[in-house]
Every structure is written in structure tokens, then in C-alpha cells.
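Batch 3, record 17
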Amino acid sequence: MLWKEFERPMLSEFGWIDREFDQLFRNMWRRWGVEQAGQYHPAINVWMNDDRLVAAVELPGVDPADIEITLKDQTLNLKGKRPQPELGAPENYVLQERTYGDFTRTVNLPYHVEADHINATFDNGWLVIELPRAEADKPRKIAVSAVA
Amino acid sequence: MEIVVKRNGKPATRPVAAPARTATAEARWATPRVDVYETPDNFVLLADMPGVSAENVNVTLERNVLTLEGEAAATFPVTDEKPVYMEFQPRRYRRVFSLTSTVAVEDIAATMRHGVLRLVLPKAAPATAQRINIKTNEA
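Prediction for the assembled complex:
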């Protein structure tokens, strides 16, 4: 064996336990038909205020051209594919931990956004989507006039 | 106003963590997921380090110990927006391997693309047996 990993993360980090559990649950979901084989769900963060939403997604190794972002009403859909490197006949894996295949994520937005002004950037494996709130959807102050 | 993040069409629930963009300094070391495959001439190592740029990755080799380290930049374009749903933090990645002598350590090449560190480790030429001449003082 060429590879010997002698420094395991300390127990307090739970790095490897995380991974084991990931794998365990993925297998379980698949068996129960909850998750389709070959489909995974990248980690996502969402920030928001009254004016806009920002979403960040972890997609290392994904070509930005393979990411499809769609908006329908208030539903933001993200999907794409992370292809597995194709190995030739004499090539084989020594260690394989990374996830490949189709990915998908859906976010139900709390308000309407300007579909034409959604800005998506991809940097070092992070996809960042900025969604400004639709003007018509912003809260408006209604003046109250007193009746004399 | 409610935000619903779905996983496989079903709402996913996860507590809102501390704002991720300020957590870099205190971020824990994370273990990157790694693939290694063997070709006739090389070993190729791929490590997922999302958020890490080429300037922020460190690959060191000391004797036969190969250390991969990377720090994700906190570059989310967020100002006063509140975190409402957090599944990941910008992390510091670290992983250590020991190499056997079958790798030509001086020719290791590293590249970083889309948050994936790629190392090409050429296999060393097999050591050939060397013949030692025997001198004699016999006449």
C-alpha cells in the first residue's frame, strides 16, 4: 500500500465519524428510496434581510457551465452534475472519498425576487447567488390620514 | 416570512449557526475528502477544498510526510443580511499522508482549480541493481 495516513483527525473533530455517518445515511436513504442513487445535495447557506437574499453553495470541482439555476415563482432550483474523472484501463483508485454525480437543491424563497437581476458567481468551488427582492414585493408604508 | 430549504423535495431542518463569514479565524480543522488514483506513471491525488484559492493552499513535504493545508477565504458578499440557514462554514483543511519511496518526491506537481487541489506524484524509476566490482590484490 503506497498510502498510509498516519494522522487521523482527533476524535473531537468528528471528521471521519461525519464521513462514516454520511455514507451510512446515504446508503440507508437509497435503500428506502428517499434519495436516488447518484444524486447528492451540496451544502448551502442562506442569508437574508428585507431587501435581498444571498445563498452560497459548496460545489468543489464542478464546472460553472454544468450548474443550472432556475427560478419559478418563489422557488429557486439548483441542479447540475459533478462528473467523475474517467480512468483508463490500467488506472485504478487507491482511495475514493469524493462524491460524484447529479446534484440538486431547492429553496422556497420567502418573497418574490427580481428574476432579471439575480447574480450568480462561482469562485474556488463556491457558488454565490444574490437575489434582490422584487420592488413590488417590498413592504410599503401606507400613510394614514386622519378624518377631521 | 419563512424560508424553506429543501433536500430531495422535503424540507430540511438545521439550526442557524453563527455567521459563517466571521468564523474563519476560529474555524476548526476539517478533513478534506480525497481521491487517489494510480496511472502507469503517476499517482494522482484530488482533494476537495471548497473556498480555497491557489494562494491559500500549502503543500509541504518533509522527509516522506506530505501535508496538505488550505484555508477558505471569507468572501461571501454579505453585509447586514442575517444568516437564516447554515450548513457549512469557511474551513481550514488539513490532511497528512506518508509517502513510500516509490514516489519521485522532487517532481510532485500541484494545481488548484474550482476548489479542488490536484497533486500529480510521479512514480520513481525502479531501483536497478548495481554491480560492485571486486578488486583483488592477488597477483
